[in-house]
Amino acid sequence: MSEAEAGVKNLSPVVALGEIVLGGDVEAGGGNRKGVGEGDGGAGKRRLGNGDGDGGIRLGDMRVEGRSCVEGENSNADTDANQEPQDTDTATDTDTRQYISGWKMHMLTIGLWISLFLSTLETTIVSTSLVSITNALDGFQVRDWIVTAYLITYTGFLVIYAKFSDVFGKKTLLILALGIFTLFSILCGAATGIVELIIFRAFQGIGASGIYSMIMAIAPTMVPEKEFGKYIAVVSTVFVLASVLGPILGGAINSHTTWRWVFLLNAPGGSISLILIALFLPSSQPTTTTTLLAHLQAKFTKSAFARIDVLGTVFLLAFSVLLVFALETAGSRYAWSSPVIVITLVFSVVAGAAFVGWEWWVERVAGRQEPVFPLGLLGDRVLACMMA
């Protein structure tokens, strides 16, 4: 057995540096201890630096950089010490927002509830009145459009309202949507022709879309997080009551009065909720202006309009309107294989693809425009599953 082999075989002491454990003798810088088998065929030396804790370890031609155990412990202690203040800051981070309470909160809740109830009721109450409406206006063949026109604009403007509220404010958009809904409800009740009624119903759907979108965005900000479930449960009773009372109210109105009250009943309820929301809902974008005109001028500025993604809005509307039209009329008014449905679906797909491509470009290219629907939101798996 050679001296080198004997030197390697007889390595006995153990030296620990950080996470590295090596066997063998150690030669400290400036010391006189030499490794076993350091002759002509020696296995090399293990060399520790000049005692400063950051030396290298040399074994043959291999060099391993390490840190001393003491310094590692000091580093861990420093890390723990640095983390402790962060935990303290997190613990002291509390919700400092101011929430309305008392009778003001109750009045605002009533206003929001009434407006959401009326807009949801329109999707069910009209269905039971279609026969009376079409008989009076002589439009039985296009009766489905009375419902379809409302649903097309209702679904098409949901995302648009949500984005525009970031620019102009949630309260402003809610009041605007409620005013549109109430105005065109009155016009629907005063319509004298079936085509006129269908057009007014489309604009009524635009208002109802804004009511739903804005209330779903405003409600979570009205109460502290611990009361969020309770408040949303109260607001959600709207959908249950609207589904149950819609057909009942529609049948009662047609049996005891004219069909026009199906739409006219939104006038008093919409006016009351409009006043309550205008008085008690805090502005989402507070300003120092005192007059209404100055407040509106501060909101609707050139810089605000420059943030709007006009082309993305057009693509989104085209995609949603064409898709809803095809799904609503296929199998009833038109066959699935009819050219109308096929062409509509093709253009819907093209508009959808153009919308995705355009939003991707707007989101990544520097500019003042803000995407209507940032595609980065889909990176959150929870949010993506909720939208699916």
Automatic annotation (TrEMBL):
<feature type="transmembrane region" description="Helical">
    <location>
        <begin position="231"/>
        <end position="253"/>
    </location>
</feature>
<keyword id="KW-0472">Membrane</keyword>
<dbReference type="GO" id="GO:0005886">
    <property type="term" value="C:plasma membrane"/>
</dbReference>
<feature type="domain" description="Major facilitator superfamily (MFS) profile">
    <location>
        <begin position="108"/>
        <end position="388"/>
    </location>
</feature>
<dbReference type="Pfam" id="PF07690">
    <property type="entry name" value="MFS_1"/>
</dbReference>
<dbReference type="InterPro" id="IPR011701">
    <property type="entry name" value="MFS"/>
</dbReference>
<feature type="compositionally biased region" description="Gly residues">
    <location>
        <begin position="28"/>
        <end position="42"/>
    </location>
</feature>
<feature type="transmembrane region" description="Helical">
    <location>
        <begin position="107"/>
        <end position="133"/>
    </location>
</feature>
<feature type="compositionally biased region" description="Polar residues">
    <location>
        <begin position="73"/>
        <end position="85"/>
    </location>
</feature>
<feature type="transmembrane region" description="Helical">
    <location>
        <begin position="339"/>
        <end position="361"/>
    </location>
</feature>
<protein>
    <submittedName>
        <fullName>Efflux pump FUS6</fullName>
    </submittedName>
</protein>
<feature type="transmembrane region" description="Helical">
    <location>
        <begin position="145"/>
        <end position="161"/>
    </location>
</feature>
<keyword id="KW-0812">Transmembrane</keyword>
<dbReference type="GO" id="GO:0022857">
    <property type="term" value="F:transmembrane transporter activity"/>
</dbReference>
<feature type="region of interest" description="Disordered">
    <location>
        <begin position="28"/>
        <end position="55"/>
    </location>
</feature>
<feature type="transmembrane region" description="Helical">
    <location>
        <begin position="259"/>
        <end position="283"/>
    </location>
</feature>
<dbReference type="InterPro" id="IPR036259">
    <property type="entry name" value="MFS_trans_sf"/>
</dbReference>
<feature type="transmembrane region" description="Helical">
    <location>
        <begin position="173"/>
        <end position="192"/>
    </location>
</feature>
<dbReference type="InterPro" id="IPR020846">
    <property type="entry name" value="MFS_dom"/>
</dbReference>
<feature type="transmembrane region" description="Helical">
    <location>
        <begin position="304"/>
        <end position="327"/>
    </location>
</feature>
<feature type="transmembrane region" description="Helical">
    <location>
        <begin position="198"/>
        <end position="219"/>
    </location>
</feature>
<keyword id="KW-1133">Transmembrane helix</keyword>
<feature type="region of interest" description="Disordered">
    <location>
        <begin position="70"/>
        <end position="94"/>
    </location>
</feature>
